[in-house]
Each structure stands twice: as C-alpha cells, then as structure tokens.
Structure prediction request, 509 residues.
Amino acid sequence: MAPRYSLPSLLLVPCSLLPTQEMVPRGSPQEPPASRSASPNPNPPTKRKAVATAATEPNKRPRTDPDRPPAEEGEVQEDPSNIVAPIASAVPVRRPRAGKISIRQCETLHNKYHSAGRMLKYSGDARFWSTYPPSHKEYRALADPPPPNSSYYKHGGLIARLELLDALVCFTYSIWNRDYCRRACNSQTWYTIEAFLVWCKQKWQAEESTPDSEKAFLGLIWMIEGFIHGRKLVYGTAKGSPVDRDLDKLIGATRAGISAAATDAHPAGAILGMGSLAPKAGTTPVMLPSPASLAPSANSTPTNRDGGTPSSTAGSAASAAAPHPVTAGMVPSTLPSALMPPEFKHVPLAPNVVAAMENVTVPVGPRLLNELKNESLGIANAAFCMNNSQTYLNLPIMARFFPTTFARMVSSTLSPNEEHEPDFEDEEGELFWPGQSSTGEGLGWVCLMGKAMIKEFGKAYAYRGLDGVVPKPKPEEEAEAAAGSGVGGAHNLSGSTPLGHNSPLPLAR
Prediction:
C-alpha cells in the first residue's frame, strides 16, 4: 500500500491574496477582498492601482445573475499583469491502486452519476428561473428560497450555472463509465446529451467582462464536446467495425473491377511494360546488330586514327540501350498502388488501358456513404471544438486559477490508461491531464479534471453540489403545480432544456 501524504500549503502566495472572513466572493476566487483594512499583511505590495469610483457601463448582453457586483468605493483592484500565479509544490495523495475494474462497478458508477446529473440539472434550471425579475414571463419562485445573506442567494445565477455544468460532467462521466468497461463507444448514447451540452455552453458563453477563471469552464465544455467527437471517430472506424468491413468489401470489389478492365482493354498482354516488347507472331524479327556496332577485336581494322573523328561505337551503344520505339506511347497509371493488381504495378501501360482502369466505378451503399460523411464532419467538429477549448483552458490557465487541480495533474504518477483509478469525488488524489482527443480516450480524465475544477472554484462561493440542490418535487406535486399555475407545465420554457432531453441517458438495453 502506497504511503499517504497530506496536501501542504501552496507556495509563493502573497499574504495580501489570502482570504479573510470579511472577503466578499467575486467573479473569480483569485480576485482581492472588498476591503484591505483587515488584511494580515502589514506591508502590502506597492504595485497597486486604485480604481476611481465610476458608473459601470452596461454589458452588451444583460445578465440576470448577481455574480459580480460593481467595485465598491475605495476598493483596490488587482492588476492582472502583476498577479503572481501560486505555484503548488505539493504532491497529491497517492491512493492505493484499484487495478482492473469490473463491468458491475462501472454500471454502479453509471447509475450513481446519472441520478446525480438529473438532480443537478433540475436544480440549475429551477434556480435560473428564480433569478429572473418577478415581472418576467419565465420567473418561477423557489418553494424554499435560500436565505438572503447566503452565497446561494447573492450569487444565484453563478450557482445555477455551476449546477448545470456539474450535471453535464456527471452525465458525461456516467456514459463514459458504461463505454469504458466494454472498450466500446455507443454513438447513439452520446447523441442524447448534445442538446444539454449546447444549453450549458450557452449559459457559460463568454463576454468581454467575463473573468478568465469562468472562461475556463467554457473551455471545459468545448473540451468535453471535442473528446466526445474524437472518441466516436476512433471507435467508429476501428478494425472490425461496420465501416471498416464495408470499406474492405468496397476496396476488394474496386480492385477486381480494375483488373478486369485492364484485361479487357488489352487481352493480348496483361503486363504491358515488358510484354509489349516481345515480337508478335508473324512479324519480322528484330535485326541483329551490325559488326560495326560490336567492340573491335584484335583482327579488326581500327576505325579511329590520330586526329580523326571519334568512332560511332559509343553512339550505337547508346541507341541500343534506349527504350524501344514500341514503348513511346506508354504512360503510368495514377491509380493508388493498393488498388492495382500486382502485375500492373510500376510498369508503363497503354493509354487505353489506363483510361479503362481509371473509369472503373463501384456502387456505394447509403449506410456507408452516410457513415463516411459523418466521419468527415466529425473530424471537422473535433478540430473546431478543441481549437476553441485550448483558447480558454490550457495549462497556464489551470496553474493560475486552479492551482490545486493543476498540482494534482502535473505531480501525478498515474498513466494515461488509468482513467478508472481516481475517485470522482476525491479532492486530494492524483489526476492526469486529458492528453490528445485523437486517441479516442481521455474523456474520463476530462470529467475528473472538470469535477475538480468545479469543487476548487466553488469554494469561494460555498458551492455544495448535490447537498445544495433544489429538490425536485414529487410527480403528483409537480403535476398539481403545473395544473394550478399553468407555468412550466404543458409548454416548454425558453429558459429550460429542450423537451425530450430531461433524461440524457436512455434506458439500459
């Protein structure tokens, strides 16, 4: 059993950045408290920039959540260029290795986080409705609202977004567990969370005033989507997959058609590069070389004299080595070598033979055509998602705003293929940077990293995850409320997840 280590405190953290009880949560856990009077540092850094009190300009898109209140009078703002990112020198706790994981264990995790995702999703939607002004058509008051002095009340919009993101991570981790133990990828199951993923992305859409710590969560959503595309691509074209088998049949039929076309175009000689040089029946044989073209013997008369013209022997030898006139019209084929029959590879062919081979066509079934189109779109989508992800979420961003999660990844002893080892709820154990989506793996690491980011970021807002969700009403209470008020009942609120996606996962088959 590996030894356990406690998580030491972070190094290089300025005392003025340490949290105090008077600290009011801001849009980012790295932002300074509202007042410096209670700071334990007697000598605060001198490189500070005071912000004069001014009327704040409205955002381009109004926000309904009171996440980031305007700067108070006399508040000292931190210049982002002068913030030193805390560097974590801590070593994460080395947990005992679980080894292989069974399908039963994966199914247990699948069911657990499917249920957790449903609760978090309902709570996120319900909390969003409660943050609208009472006059708004989609306003829905909570049956048991949080106390006015609580973080859940002051930052209701941000808490709602965290719950929705938490739900997305739980749903993704749930589906991944079912795939992981079977070493497979059920594309149809992954399609069921597309609408909810887009919904979360809209809620975390970055604005000019959005801090980088929150933009990192948008990058996380893009990363989840990119890794889903990558997984579907790799498993969808793996050896033995339906697409792979269909392509093998198609290539075999194409190769046979090319061979038949070449034989029909020139039945007298399949190998035209050398076979066409052989004399045909009934033709005059090629004349033997003249004695003059032969090398001079001891009894022959010299053909060269001092000061005379050079002998034509060299020219005659060059003429003999030159290509035979019958090959003048031959051309190479542009077909891929893998499709060419062996006897036609790397030899010049007659133009009519080349044309016959290149005009061969084979029928492609609708299913294969659709799969190939999906693969093409998947490659483009994966590249687009990962390009957006790395804009907002990368290792420097992790080191600056999520130092604990960063340390758990860079100081890890886990390997890329041990996604099943960490506990999803662990806040001190080892993690691993997700790596490359083109491998088809790593989605489990994305979920584990995302859960750790949510927990680390949420501490500044006293985010409690499942312990703080808005409870879902019982079916009879929900039906009664819908029938009585007519709000959120039969019609679909524009501020909620589209109908049909309340349960992102299908029933077990």
Notes: The radius of gyration is 36 Å.
